[in-house]
Amino acid sequence: MSGIVHVFKTQGNDILNAIGQHISISLISLLIAAVIAIPLAIILMNHKKTAEFILNVTSVLQTIPSLALLGILIPLVGIGTVPSVIALVVYAVMPIFQNTYSGLTTIDPNLEEAAEAFGLSRSKKLLKFEIPLAMPMIISGLRIAMVMIIGTATLAALIGAGGLGTYILLGIETNNNSLLIIGAVLSAILALIFSGIIRGISKLSLKKIGVIFAALVILIGGVAGYRVIVKPQTTITIAGKMGSEPEILINMYKDLIEQDNPNIKVTTKANFGGTSFLYKALKSGSIDIYPEFTGTVLESLVKTKKGASHDPAATYQLAKKLLKSQENLEYLKPMKYENGYALVVKKSFAKKYNLKTVSDLIAIEGKINAGFDPDFYQLSDGYPGISKAYHLKFGNTQTMESSIRYKAIANDKVNLVDGYTTDPQIQEYDLVALKDDKEFFPPYQGAPLVSEELLTKYPGIRKTLNKLAGKISETDMQKMNYRVSVKHEKAAKVAREYLVEHGLLNR
Amino acid sequence: MIEFKNVYKKYENNDNTAINDLNLQIKDGDFFVLVGPSGSGKTTTLKMINRLIKQTSGDITIDGKNIDDFDIQEMRLQMGYVLQNIALFPNMTIEDNITIQPESLKWSKEKRHKVAWDLLDKVGLKPEDYAKRYPRELSGGEQQRVGIVRALAADPKVVLMDEPFSALDPISRNQLQELVLKLHSEMKMTFIFVTHDMNEAVRLGNTIAVMRLGHLEQIGTRDEIVHNPKNNFVNGFFKNQQNDDKKLKLIIDSQDCQEVDEQDTDLSEEDNVSDLASLLKTRSFALVKSADGRVWKLTTQSLLNYLARDGE
After folding, report:
1. Looking at the partner chain, which of B52, B79, B100 has a beta carbon nearest the beta carbon of A128?
2. C-alpha closest to that of B205 among B188, B192, B189
3. Does residue B5 surpass a pLDDT of 60?
4. Alpha-carbon dihedral angle through residues A202, A203, A207, A208, given to the nearest 10 degrees
5. In this predicted model, what pLDDT tens digit does every residue of A129-138 receive, in sequence order?
6. 141-200 in B: which are within 8 Å (CB) of A?
7. Parallel, antiparallel, or unpaired: how do β-strands B285-289 and B295-299 relate?
8. Distance between CA atoms of B278 and B267, rounded to whole angstroms?
9. Which of A49, A336, B148, B258 has its CA 20 to 30 A from that of B293?
C-alpha cells in the first residue's frame, strides 16, 4: 500500500497523463466504432442475409488475438495511437453492430405495419420509433464495447500509445505490484465510470444525444487537427523496451543527439512493448532508434546457423554484420555493461568466502543453497550448462518464482540466486554478481540499433551515439536502475546526471 | 369511390388462391363492412387498398385512378388505419401518437395540437388528462380509442379498420362500436371495416360484403343481407352466429330483472349472454340498455335463472 502511495507521490503527473491518453484512445475508438456500426446496422436492418454475413465477419475479427492484430498493423500504419485505435475499433464494432441490429429487428411487427400504413418515410420511422425503441439495446452494445475497449486499450502501451497499460506492463516486467495495481485498478475504475456515463446518456432524448455526439466528434477532431498542425518538422523517434534500463538509455541518446543537433527534435517512447514490436516498428520506419542487446539480435532477430558465441566482441560483430546484410539496419557500438545471466550472492557472503568469480564457488559448492528461476534451472544456457562448464554441483538447489528470488536471498532463505547483471535489486539488497570468468553465459551487450535511412540523413548521429561506446559499467547501470525503478526518480534526470558527470554532456 | 376489378391474390407458398376474382365498389361516405370467417380473404382485401399487400392481378382504383399510379406514401398519408393490435408507439405520448400523420403532412404545431385535443375530447378522453400520457398507462379500450383518433387525425377520406375490436372486452367493444357509428355520421369519411362477427357487421355496416374462401358470397345493404341471404352460407353464417350468441334481450324480455334509473350502461340488449357472464365474473350486476332506452339491472341470479330455463 505504501508502495502505491509512493508511486502516486512521485509519478502523479505521469499517471494523470496516462489516464488522459487512455481516455482519449478509448473515446476515439468508441466513437469511430459507433459511427461505423450503428449506420451499418440501420442500413442492413432490412437485409437479413447481408447483416448475418457482416455479423460473421465481425465475430471473426473478434477472435484475432489483440497482440497478433497489433503485430499486423505496425508494418502497415506504424506505431502509437493509430494502430491502437484501429485494433480497438475492430473489436468494438461487433457488440455495437450486433446490439443495434437486434434492437432494430426485434421491434413489434405491428408497429412497423402501422408506420407503413400511415405512410411514414424511412427516416421518419427511424427517428420516431425504431431508434428510440432500439436505444436500450444500442446503449448496452455501446457499454459492452466501452468496457472492452478500456480493458483492451491497456495493450496500446505495447506499441507506444501510452495509457494505463504502461503501468500494468511495467509492473509485470519489473515485478512491481504497486504499478500493476495502479494500472489495473485505474482502468477498472475508468470502465465503471464510462459505463455509468453511457447509461446516463441513454436517458436523454435523441436530440440531446445527437448534440453530445456531435460535440465529441468536433472536440476530438479539433484536438487531432491541432496536433497535426503544430507537429514539429524534423523529429527522430527513439523507443525502448519495458523497464527502467531502456528508458534511461533512450534519454541519454536523446540528450546527446539534441546537444549535437540543436535543430532536431527527439521524441522518446519509453516502455514500448516486446522486442518484436520494436523491431517491426524500426523496420517500418515508425521509430528510428532503439537499444538492443547483442545476444537478443542473434537469438531472435536475424537468421543464423551458428550457436551463440560466448565472446562478447565476436557476438557483436556477427550481430552487426547480419543486421546489415539481412535487414539493412545499422548496429552502433555497444556500451560496456553486459546484462546477461549472472549468479548473485550477498556481498557479506562473498566477502566471507572471498568470492569474486563463478570459479571461486567450486571451493564451497557444498555450502551453496541456490534458488533458481524455473527456466534458469532447466535451460541449457542456465544451471545445467554452467554446472557442466565449471564442474559445479551445489549442495542444494530449489526453483522459485522469479519475483521472489531476491526476497528469498535477502531473507537468507537461500544464499545464491540467478539474476541479470544490471538488476536494480542487486543494489537494493546489497548483493553482488559473480564474474562469469569462463564466459559461459551468452553475452548481452546493449547497443543502439538504428535505421540506415536515419544515418544517411544525419550521418553525425553515428559519431554522437558512439560516444557511449564502452561507457557505463554494470555497477553504473545497477545504480541507475535502482534510482529509477526502486526510488522512482525520473529516468531523464538520472540519464542526464550520468552524462554530465562523465563529461559527455555540457551543462 | 374505391373499385376492385377482377382482383386475384395468390401467395407464393400456398396453392390456394387467397382472393379469387373479386369485384366490388365502395361508395364515398359509406360504412362498408367486410365480414367472413377466418381465411375468407377479408383482411387481405382491406390491406390491398393501401398496398400493404399487392394483388397478383386485377386493378384497384380510387376515384378512377389506379392505386399503383399514386405515390405510395402520399396515398397512405391520406388514409387512416386502425389495427387489431392497436399498435400505439410505446415511446411516444398519446398526443404524439395521434399527430404522427399530420406531422408527416407538415401541419403546423398549433394545428396538430388542436386536432389531437378536439378528437380526444370527441372520443371521451379528457385531453388535459390524456394528451401527455404514454400508451402503457391506458386500458385496452382507451388505447383503441386513441388508435381510432390516430386514424382520423389527418382528416383522411378513407379509414381502414382491421378487426379493431376483436381483442377488447365486451363492454369496451360495445362502447367503441357506438363510438365509430357516431364518428362516421359526424365526419363524412368512408369507413372500411373488417370483422368476423356477423352481429358487429350488422350493427355497423351500411353495406356488408360477406366473404368466404376468397370469394365474395354476397354484397348488399344490411337489410338485404339480413332478410334476403343469397345462399345457404350467408344465411347459415348469420343464423349460426345468432344462435350461438344468445341475446340479453331474452333475459330482459323474461322480466327477470329490475328497471333502474341510470344513464351509464355496461351493455345493450343486443349483446350476448356470454358478454354478461364474463362481466359478472368480477361484479354482482350489470346495467343493460334495451332498444326503447330503458335501463335494466341484470344480476348473477338473472343469468342463472336464464340458463336454467334455457336448459329445460
Report:
1. B100
2. B192
3. yes
4. -90
5. 999 999 999 9
6. 160
7. antiparallel
8. 12
9. B148
Total residues belonging to chain A? 507
On whether the CB atoms of residues B242 and B286 are closer than 8 A, the answer is no
Do B81 and A129 count as a contact with CB atoms less than 8 A apart? no
**Dihedral angle over CA of B100, B105, B111, B112, nearest 10:** 0
| Dist. CA A384–CA A312, nearest whole Å | 21
Sign of the dihedral defined by the CA atoms of residues A241, A244, A249, A250, in that order: positive
- Please, which pLDDT band fits residue A366 given cuts at 50, 70 and 90? confident
Chain segment A301-351, per-residue pLDDT in tens: 888 776 657 788 888 888 888 888 888 899 999 999 888 888 999 999 999
Non-local (6+) Cβ contacts of B206 within 8 A are B30, B31, B32, B221, B222
Q: Which three cell numbers stand for residue A40?
A: 451499418
User: What is the residue type of A17?
Assistant: N
Cell digits of residue B17 = 388462391
Alpha-carbon distance of A208 to A409, in angstroms, equals: 62
Give the B window 65-104 contacts with A, CB below 8 Å: 72-79, 81, 83, 85-87, 89-92, 100-101, 104
Close Cβ partners of B109 (under 8 Å, ≥ 6 residues apart): none
Q: Is the pLDDT of residue B254 over 80?
A: no
- Inter-chain CB proximity B87 and A128 less than 8 Å: no
**What's the CA dihedral at B79, B82, B83, B87 to 10 degrees?**
100
C-alpha cell of residue A455: 544515418
pTM of the model as a whole: 0.72
Termini Cα distance of chain B:
52
CA distance, residue B197 to nearest chain A CA (Å):
22
- CA angle centred on A174, ends A84 and A375, rounded to 5°: 105
- Alpha-carbon Rg of chain A, whole angstroms? 28
Cα A209 from Cα A198, distance rounded (Å):
10
Confidence bin at A171 (pLDDT 50/70/90) = confident
CA-nearest of A1, A495, A413 to A249 is A495
Alpha helices in B153-283, H assignment, sequence order? 170-187, 198-204, 222-227, 232-244, 249-253, 273-279
Lowest model confidence (mean pLDDT) among A182-186, A422-426, B27-31: A422-426
DSSP class of residue A158? G
Residues comprising chain B, all counted: 312
Q: Which has the minimum average pLDDT: A134-143, A170-179, B240-249?
A: B240-249
pLDDT higher for B282 or A120? Answer: A120
Nearest CB to B104; choose among A110, A113, A120: A120
What is the Cα–Cα distance from B77 to B56, expressed in whole angstroms?
Answer: 24
- Evaluate whether B234 touches B73 at the Cβ level (below 8 Å): no
- pLDDT value of residue A174: 66
How far apart (Å, rounded) are the C-alpha atoms in residues A163 and A169? 11
| Candidates B81, B91, B92; nearest CB to A118 | B81
CA B40 from chain center: how many Å?
17
Rounded to a whole number of angstroms, the distance from the CA of B154 to the nearest CA of chain A is 10
- Residue B52, all three cell numbers: 400493404
Helices (H) and strands (E) in chain B, counts: 14, 14
- Concatenate the DSSP letters of all residues of A289-333 into one string: EEEEEHHHIIIIIS---SPPPS-HHHHHHHHHHHHHHHH-EEE--
DSSP assignments along A401-428, one per residue: -HHHHHHHHHTTS-SEEEEETT-HHHHH
Among A307, A455, A380, smallest CA distance to A318 is for A307
> Chain-centre distance of CA A15, in angstroms?
15
Q: What is the pLDDT of residues A85-107, one digit of tens each?
A: 999 999 999 999 999 999 999 99
What is the predicted pLDDT for the residue at A11? 76
Average pLDDT over residues A191-207: 86
Residues A78 and B87: their CA atoms lie apart, in Å, by 54
As given in the structure block, the three cell numbers for residue A207 are 436530440
